[in-house]
Write a sequence for this structure.
């Protein structure tokens, strides 16, 4: 894959006034901007980094395809030739549970991509710029004044302070959590703190055939899970997620711990016996976060700025794109003078998807979900319903795992255990 430069707007064209100011140029920010621009609104994307920049979150869900398409970005992503992803393989010792997006309850996309995020995010940002969205790199939002006529304060690369007046502000600053910090909206996550140790590697002996495209989610015997995400250029992303004490089983540098822990699981040991690291393993911890409210006077939070649960089902980018899509449509209506019930139409809508994933995440860690997943006898309809959740179709109320996720998971896990399946 040939690296592509990021396209941006001439800094001299930085605006004083727009309809919608968007903080952050990740998937949530650029897709919201593209949708609003299409409706004729004056937008600006303010991004603190220069792209490409590294960010974790490389395995997409099928639902992303609908959302990229609506944002006018699907063709640009197709042109990057990322590895097509058709599902996920869960691995526990000798056991395998394959989730194939083609075999779903909800009608929708049956495939998506595994994406190196540096390149993917540039692709989306370039697509937004090509559609006409003004986008400024290396511009950091430092303050925001909420209310009916909000404004954001920005530090430019030249060290100047600029203010942009807007009719609405969308915070898509992801791990930057700009408005939650500035406005005191941050709340601790209800989930246990976990730590991730990860790297990109070469020399992965991938399975040949239909399972090559899968993300592997491997349950490590000492209590972590490991992702293995193959890219089209032969590099594989490999990462652990565990409670911090898991890593105390080994001593040494992060690389030594990474290698030793991989060597203790037969599945990762076999695939990665000859691996070379592309970069030193990185650590991210305490990433689960929540907020007291998803919107307020003059602003909406989207993507990771709202709530981030856990990476096990690769839901992050999907929820980022979905919230951006919803927030852009509601902002459009509000700017046209229609009344918008943000609690009902935005917070409650997003909560439906988030709560479905939350129930699955809790079920993953308390053992209910693996019990269902690895059960010998599989009810085909039930399997399809679970596959649709794992493909990101978490707003289909015909699916009992969406309607009552926690109750349904507990009920099925009880039956599976009772049958000893
Ligand atoms: C260990 C781990 C593994 C994960 N794996 C997956 C996965 O496989 N699949 C998946 O879908 N998700 C995964 N995720 C989640 C994923 O990383 C996020 O959900 C996703 O990146 C959210 O996108 P976003 O657009 O909301 O924010 P981001 O992608 O974080 O973009 C936010 C942007 O805002 C900019 N910004 C920050 N502060 C400011 C400021 N003050 N001014 C201007 N700009 C600012 C940042 O530079 C950044 O470019 C994983 C997360 C973790 C922790």
């Amino acid at each position: 894959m040939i690296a592509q430069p990021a396209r941006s707007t001439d800094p001299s064209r930085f605006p004083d006034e727009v309809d919608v100011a968007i903080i952050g140029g990740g998937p949530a920010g650029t897709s919201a901007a593209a949708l609003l621009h299409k409706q004729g609104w004056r937008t600006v994307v303010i991004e603190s980094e220069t792209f490409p920049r590294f960010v974790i979150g490389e395995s997409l869900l099928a639902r992303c395809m609908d959302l990229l398409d609506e944002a006018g970005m699907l063709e640009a992503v197709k042109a990057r030739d990322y590895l097509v992803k058709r599902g996920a393989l869960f691995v526990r010792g000798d056991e395998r549970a394959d989730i194939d997006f083609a075999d779903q309850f909800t009608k929708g996309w049956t495939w998506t991509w595994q994406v190196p995020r540096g390149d993917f995010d540039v692709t989306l940002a370039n697509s937004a710029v090509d559609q006409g969205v003004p986008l400024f790199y290396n511009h950091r939002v430092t303050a925001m004044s909420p209310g009916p006529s909000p404004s954001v304060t920005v530090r430019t690369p030249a060290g100047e302070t600029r203010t942009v007046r807007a009719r609405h502000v969308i915070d898509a600053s992801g791990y930057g959590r700009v408005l939650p910090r500035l406005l005191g909206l941050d709340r601790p996550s209800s989930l246990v703190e976990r730590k991730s140790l990860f790297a990109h590697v070469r020399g992965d002996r991938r399975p040949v055939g239909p399972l090559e495209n899968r993300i592997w989610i491997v349950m490590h015997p000492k209590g972590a899970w490991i992702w293995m995400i193959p890219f089209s250029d032969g590099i594989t992303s490999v990462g652990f997620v565990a409670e911090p004490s898991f890593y105390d089983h080994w001593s040494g540098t992060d690389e030594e711990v990474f290698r030793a822990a991989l060597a203790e699981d037969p599945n990762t040991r076999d695939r990665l016996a000859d691996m070379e690291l592309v970069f030193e393993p990185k650590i991210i911890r305490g990433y689960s976060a929540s907020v007291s409210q998803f919107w307020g006077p003059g602003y909406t939070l989207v993507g990771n700025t709202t709530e981030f649960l856990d990476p096990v089902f690769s839901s992050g980018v999907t929820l980022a794109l979905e919230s951006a899509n919803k927030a852009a449509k509601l902002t459009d209506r509000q700017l046209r003078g229609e009344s918008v019930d943000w609690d009902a139409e935005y917070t409650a809508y997003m909560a439906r998807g988030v709560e479905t994933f939350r129930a699955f995440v809790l079920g993953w860690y308390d053992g209910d979900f693996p019990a269902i997943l690895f059960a010998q006898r599989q009810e085909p309809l039930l399997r399809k319903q679970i596959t649709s959740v794992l493909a990101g179709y978490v707003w289909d109320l015909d699916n009992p795992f969406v309607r009552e996720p926690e109750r349904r998971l507990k009920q099925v896990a009880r039956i599976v255990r009772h049958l000893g399946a």
Residues 89 and 321 are 24 Å apart (CA to CA). Residues 11-83+115-188+288-349 form a domain with the FAD/NAD(P)-binding domain fold (CATH 3.50.50.60). The longest strand covers residues 195-202. The chain has a mean pLDDT of 96.
